[in-house]
């Protein structure tokens, strides 16, 4: 598929399907635990297919497990039957530890499981593009050195942080290329930790590394979509645009209309229904109201695609997910 043309077709169409980051709620459809899902490639493929069969989404997006890449480096993770895994502890201590950090192979940790899951999913889902979910470079570095320490290191130990960032970037390029080589249509790269930085620090510690990844991967057949759900993104749009990604996805912490007004009309911008407040804890009625309000404010921008503000949690209510899709369809067909 020519994905550049796909983006152009989206902008040109008066009716736009939604593209939420929706995969983990498949555990409810399959009657399995999150722990079972993340350790089995076949279940991951079948889960993605179950979601694709349930909803008429613009594309299928695989599991946004932000512990995966850090675990491949050697970080410890905490798993759960009901929640997405998280990184625990600190892997990299001091500059010496950063210099000794080894870039992992694609056989490390659970990387092979996720690659195999995507490979099988691509044989099952043939009616829409399929994107892999990966972490961004600064967000990965933060999980390796400790999130709180990463903020301090930007000013106190920048050499340490850049050393880790270079290795994180090298691995992410290798990992994402594996998805590209197997025929995936692109990646959605989650860089939420950057949203906690000042614009000046984001320019130094995220922008150049995201740009390096995008330049290494982008093609007519493979897109790089940038995601940031931080509340500072409205202040760093110039830096975000300089990464050169193909499309951009933002969280519910910001005003979506204000973000659209800062972006060129030829660049796709996605977001930003609250995953916790609406998808997980809302009702079909509150979801419908939130969707209508967002579309009333933003649908006049031809480059806007409605989405979730971030990855939809495993426990999100399917009645709310269904209401999201139903309301979007009704709005565009009214």
Determine the structural class based on helices, strands and strand pairing: alpha/beta
Uncertain regions: pLDDT < 50 for 5+ in a row?
none
Q: How many E strands?
A: 9
The N- to C-terminal Cα distance equals 30 Å
Physical arrangement of strands within the biggest beta sheet: 1-4-5-6-7-8-9
How much of the residues is beta strand, in percent? Answer: 5-15%
Largest sheet: 7 strands, parallel
Q: What oligomeric state best describes the polypeptide chains here?
A: single chain
Principal-axis shape equals: globular
N-to-C order of helices and strands: HHHHEHEEHHEHHHEHHEHEHEHHEH
Our Rg estimate from Cα atoms comes to 19 Å
Please state the average pLDDT score.
97
Number of helices: 17
Helix content: 40-55%
Task: Give an account of the 3D structure.
With 334 residues, this protein is of the alpha/beta class. 52% of the residues lie in helices and 12% in strands. The chain contains 17 helices and nine strands. The protein has helices spanning 3-12, 26-30, 34-38, 41-54, 68-73, 94-100, 111-124, 137-145, 147-156, 158-182, 199-205, 207-217, 237-242, 256-262, 275-280, 284-298, 318-333, and strands at 60-61, 76-78, 86-88, 130-135, 186-190, 223-228, 247-250, 268-273, 304-308. The protein has a seven-stranded parallel sheet, sandwiched between helices. A two-stranded antiparallel sheet has the order 2-3. Strand 2 (76-78) and strand 3 (86-88) form a beta hairpin. Helix 8 crosses helix 10 (158-182). It is globular. The protein starts with a helix and ends with a helix. The model has no long low-confidence stretch (mean pLDDT 97).
